Amino acid sequence: MPLAVTEIFYSIQGESTHAGKPCAFVRLSGCNLRCRWCDTSYAWGHGTPMEISEIAAIVLRYQCPLVEITGGEPLLQEETPELCARLRGEGLTVLVETNGSLNMDLLPPGVIRILDVKCPGSGQQDKNDPKNLERLREGDEVKMVLADREDYEFAREILVLNPGLCGRNAVSFSPVFGKLAPGDLARWVLDDRLRVRLALQLHKILFPPDARGV
User: Fold this and answer.
1) Disulfide: which of 3, 19, 118, 149 matches 124 by Cβ 3.0-4.6 Å?
2) How crowded is the C-beta side of 208, counted as CA atoms within 13 Å?
3) How far is residue 23's CA from residue 4's CA, in Å, rounded to a whole number?
4) CA-CA distance, 162 to 143, in Å (whole number)?
5) What is the full per-residue pLDDT of the chain (214 aa) written as tens digits?
6) Residue 193 to residues 2, 151, 166, 196, Cα–Cα distance (Å)
7) What is the pLDDT of residue 1?
8) Cis? peptide before 167, omega within 30° of 0
9) Rg of the chain over CA atoms, in angstroms?
């Protein structure tokens, strides 16, 4: 079965611990959430059907060792694990960003899973699958997008309820672009001595904030 694809492009990785690296991106179509601050709502549609071999061929043309599968929500498509395995088989480092509402263990070993834990500002915090925090493997990462102080306190409580999380996995707090001042978030993190990364969306600094394919 083909996958529904919104776009495939080559750019600078803007988030996670891989921020700043050249990266090939495969943006799959469809999402089961409707976050208030979503900046990729254009991926909610049906997309273009593409075979795994076709996707892999395009990615390999970029001659880039790092690839991210994103969305939308990649785990909505049952062929996503097979795509990951194919790209891993080509010797690539594969990142998958998931919205945290579905079981991450559907993805094969060796894939770096970036778990997006939804905060109240998204309007989707009740869709979080709390078991995903238990499913984290070495090398996986956690991202929390924060729109305001309420979101920060929610995210901080996640750390309190999961002691050792920051020691096992990279945890990033990312301010909603144009909504929460990065300096305010930085001060809160410093005041509370949190062991998290302040993650700005590098691609929105390098390129126009509403640009696609970057």
Assistant:
1) 118
2) 4
3) 20
4) 14
5) 899 999 999 999 998 999 999 999 999 999 999 999 998 999 998 899 999 999 999 999 999 999 999 999 999 999 999 999 999 999 999 999 999 999 999 999 999 999 999 999 999 999 999 999 999 999 999 999 999 999 999 999 999 999 999 999 999 999 999 999 999 999 999 999 999 999 998 888 888 777 777 6
6) 47, 17, 12, 9
7) 86
8) no
9) 16
Residue keyed to tokens 């790092």: 66
Q: How many residues does the chain have?
A: 214
